[in-house]
């Protein structure tokens, strides 16, 4: 089992030390997050949790709230102010933004060196070229989880199920950079089962419960489940499950990450790590 909660705690301990070093040099670490829509917006719970996690590792959390009435120019104006503020080292934007606001335009205006979610296309470009950059947090989490197994990536066959900009594509690129042989699949892929069966590493980020079944897995493969789906269980209660049929797949796989307690907590830790990295690079 690849225990995301325990891996995340190990990362947080390292992050706490790096924050302490910067603080001792008079360089406090801060994360500036923007939330549009106020306390009722879907990002609000995430923002509250983020504030707690930042506190745990010594990062100052600044939440900039705008109401649902905010226009694209209002949001953009706030981003530009944060970009220009030298005390601000790390910026993230809670989604979704109100209807009619061009999210991609806003993301592309976040200063490249402060973009700790790695959503500015310039950062994605650097990921593709293998240059030093801020990498999307979930993709980083997936790579850390794979690397925690100690399995050699060079020459391994990796199948990514799902090819979104925020997860599937950056994961595929990072695996390519690690010299794996990568197959990227999507909703139109023919013979998904056969392709997954050929994989030493399976990363599923499709958002479809039970998409990856036990009979699709090569014995001993690494299976990373990024999916987060809410489904009604036999008990009539709502449960959070991934894309992977855990009970079946865990019988065959060599390593498997659970949901919950897998990619989620490591992603949170990667956001904190990107925040520290942004602070280290800007201030030094
Ligand atoms: P998305 O909807 O943007 O993309 C889904 C991708 O999966 C698309 O490329 C689509 O073509 C593909 N897909 C859908 N059905 C498929 C099928 N039957 N076979 C093969 N490919 C299929 O989703 P996203 O934003 O990448 O999120 C994917 C899942 O990961 C969601 O459940 C989301 O909640 C979860 N997620 C988790 C984290 C985390 O930190 N744990 C972060 C982001 C997203």
Helix and strand topology:
Blueprint: H1 4-24, E1 30-36, H2 43-57, E2 60-66, H3 72-84, E3 91-93, H4 103-109, H5 121-129, H6 137-147, E4 157-161, H7 168-177, E5 181-185, H8 192-197, E6 201-204, E7 222-225, E8 229-232, E9 238-241, H9 246-252, E10 255-256, H10 263-283
Parallel strand pairs: 1-2, 1-3, 4-5, 4-6, 6-7, 7-10
Antiparallel strand pairs: 8-9
Radius of gyration: 19 Å
Percentage of residues assigned to helices: 40-55%
Q: Whole-Å distance between the termini?
A: 39 Å
Biggest β-sheet strands, sense, barrel: 5 strands, parallel
Oligomer: single chain
Name the shape in a single word. globular
Give the overall pLDDT as a whole number: 96
Q: What ligand molecules are bound, each kind once?
A: nicotinamide-adenine-dinucleotide
**Class computed from helices, strands and strand pairing:** alpha/beta
Main sheet: strand order: 5-4-6-7-10
Q: What letter string, H or E per element, gives the SSE order?
A: HEHEHEHHHEHEHEEEEHEH
Task: Specify the number of helices.
Answer: 10
Sequence stretches where pLDDT stays below 50 over 5 or more residues: none
Please report the total strand number as a whole number: 10
Beta-strand residue fraction: 15-25%
